[in-house]
Amino acid sequence: MHDNPQAGSASAFSLPDHRVIALWGRDAATFAQAQFMNDLKVLAPGRWQWSGWLTPKGRVVALFALLKFDEENLWLLVPDAEPVTLAAALQRFVFRSKVTIAARDDLRVEGAFVVPALARGNAVAGEPETGIELDFSADEGPRTLRILPASTASHDPMWMARWTAFDLRHGLARLPGTQSDHWTPQQLSLDRLNAFSVKKGCYPGQEIVARTHFLGKVKRGVALVEANAALHPGEDLKAAGEPLGHLVASADHDGRHLGLAVVPLDRAAAPLHVRDIEVHELPLMEGLAR
Q: How far are the Cα atoms of 128, 195, 232, 239, 253 from residue 69, in angstroms, in the given order?
C-alpha cells in the first residue's frame, strides 16, 4: 500500500450512505471466508473485491466491497445498509472465533469523479490509520472513493445521486432495506462484478448459489431501464401490460430516472411500463468488476 491519499480532494463530496464495518482478530479472514459469498483466499493483502452476505436460502442481505489489509484486518465498505445492525447480525455467528466486528463511526467516506491519485484496479492505496483510496472507475469514466478519519467534503445530494446512477448503469444494485433478503446473486447479475464464488467452500446460501449455477437454472438477471418520471424499488415492471419483473434499485440524476429491474433473461421484445409510465431498456455498461 502507499502513502496518505488525501491530496487532490478539492472536488470530493461526502457519501454518507456508505459506511465501514471492521473485522479484526486472529480469525478475521477465516470468519469472512466462512460467511461471505466471494473467495477471500484468492484475494491478496492490500486488495479489495465485491462480496456480500446471504441468507441460508441464498438471498442477498447486503452487498459491499471487502478490503483485505491482512489476514487479521478487514473492512466492509457497505452502501445503504445500516452498519450497526449488520455488524450485530454478523456478530451472532462469531461463536468461539477470535474476531471482533464493529461499525466504524469514526470514519468518513467521500467520492470524486476524478482519476484516483494512487489506486488502480482493486489495489488499496493508503493506510487504515491515515486514509485509503479506492479506484471505483468503470467504462463511463473515472471515480475515486476515499475512506478517511476526517473529511471536509461537502454534502451534495446531486453528486450523491450521480454516484448512485453510475453504479446502476454498470449493474451494481444499490439495495434499500425493502429489497434486502429478496434476491439471489444470480438474479442481481453479480457475476458481472465477479462478486460471488461457486467453487469455494461452504458459506450461507452456497448450496443454492452453486446448484443454480451448475444446473444451468439461472433464468433471471438485472436490466437497466429509464423513464421520464421517478421509479421506485419494489414496483412492478410490465411488458405489454403483463407482469415481467420487479425494480430493485433506482436513481434520479440530471433529469434522468433510472432503475434496475430483475427480469427473465429469455424474454420477447415488448413495450415496457412501470405503473402507467413508459420505460425504455438501456444497455448495461462494463468495467466495474474487480
A: 8, 18, 37, 47, 34
